[in-house]
Amino acid sequence: MRINQANAIELLLRGEVVAIPTETVYGLAADANNVLAVAKIFATKQRPANNPLIVHISSTDKVLDWASTFSPLAQRLAAAFWPGPLTLVLPARAEVSAAVRAGEPTVALRVPAHPVTLALLRDSGLGLAAPSANRYTQLSPTTAEHVESGLGADIPVLDGGACQVGIESTIVSVQDDHWQLLRPGMIDVAAITAIAGQPESTLDIAHTPKAPGQHLLHYAPRTPCRLFDSKSALTAYAHNKPQVAALLFGDGPAITPRDIHLPADPAQAAAHLYAALHTLDAMQAELILIESPPATAAWDALRDRLQRAAHDPGKQND
Ligand code: TXA
Ligand code: MG
């Protein structure tokens, strides 16, 4: 159900959930200070309660409403990348509900770069807890249609068009002057290192922040997927198999009866990745063959999502 900004504010203030556009993927939002509203997010997504949520805020000024400290390093990252696809995991204030933090001592914060949602955050005055607006372990939505096909036509959606970045934010945990990457995204490690210096190299187990949501089985179409090291290996496998589909990078000849070619540029490919996987999933092929993107840092985030999409749940171990 498509709604406008006024409807969205009314629903959020009443403790309901609303799907909102961001530049990365659509989020399923609720008032982060309302424990019952936050519980509706977990129920709608069928998400385990031990997986914490990102709180979306309208500007850097709001960080200390949620975090107990905003270290100089975290401030530099915020200044460099907000509004934008970077989530900072910072020590939480005691008042932040355990439901949002899933019991962690930290809180994840992000100022998203989407005009519709920035206006919603500003005009409502709320901090919005919002995971991606899909059922747990399923594909993330990058259009209002994806949200409705995944969560049902009754879910209220603020339609902000197709997401421009297309994959989830980079997540960085910051402790004083140390940082660690918890989830790769289109803001890559080199860009973060340029602002924040080298990441913490030795993992101190006792102090290593968990990334509870980093289950291997994530971002997966319903159709089984298989990742191939090269286009030639994929082509050889596809030979004489009429029931397969393929996700390929760059131009090239047809390989299966159902090919989708993503652009050869990583940012362009990311912007279309989930839409392509949604389309491939709807083709009812017996297997989706996926070409591995180039083994360079610019493709790290896409490679991460594709490895997860192709992960065999039978072998899941986390
Ligand atoms: O781009 C995005 O980040 C999108 C849009 C909607 O902002 N959101 C998103 O949310 O991808 P979600 O819930 O699907 O993924 C958030 C990840 C989860 O893996 C969760 O475990 C992790 O962030 N996370 C949240 N709070 C955390 C915390 N305090 N410590 C460590 N990891 C945290
Ligand atoms: Mg998600």
TrEMBL record:
GO cellular component terms, semicolon-separated: cytoplasm
Keywords, sorted A to Z: ATP-binding, Cytoplasm, Nucleotide-binding, Nucleotidyltransferase, Transferase, tRNA processing
UniProt domain YrdC-like: residue ranges: 2-187
Chain sites annotated for binding ATP: 47, 51, 106, 132, 140, 183, 219
Enzyme Commission code(s) on record: 2.7.7.87
InterPro entries reported for this sequence: DHBP_synth_RibB-like_a/b_dom, Sua5-like_dom, Sua5/YwlC_C, Sua5_C, T(6)A37_SUA5, TC-AMP_synthase_SUA5
Name of the top EC class for this enzyme: transferase
Subcellular location: Cytoplasm
Residues engaged in binding L-threonine: 24, 56, 110, 130, 169
GO molecular function: ATP binding; double-stranded RNA binding; L-threonylcarbamoyladenylate synthase; tRNA binding
UniProt keyword Transmembrane present: no
Reactions listed under catalytic activity: L-threonine + hydrogencarbonate + ATP = L-threonylcarbamoyladenylate + diphosphate + H2O
Domain of life, source organism: Bacteria
Pfam families membership: Sua5_C, Sua5_yciO_yrdC
Any one of the GO BP annotations: tRNA processing
Role played: Required for the formation of a threonylcarbamoyl group on adenosine at position 37 (t(6)A37) in tRNAs that read codons beginning with adenine.
Family: Belongs to the SUA5 family.
Protein name as catalogued: Threonylcarbamoyl-AMP synthase
Species in which this protein is naturally found: Methylophilus medardicus
Lineage: Bacteria, Pseudomonadati, Pseudomonadota, Betaproteobacteria, Nitrosomonadales
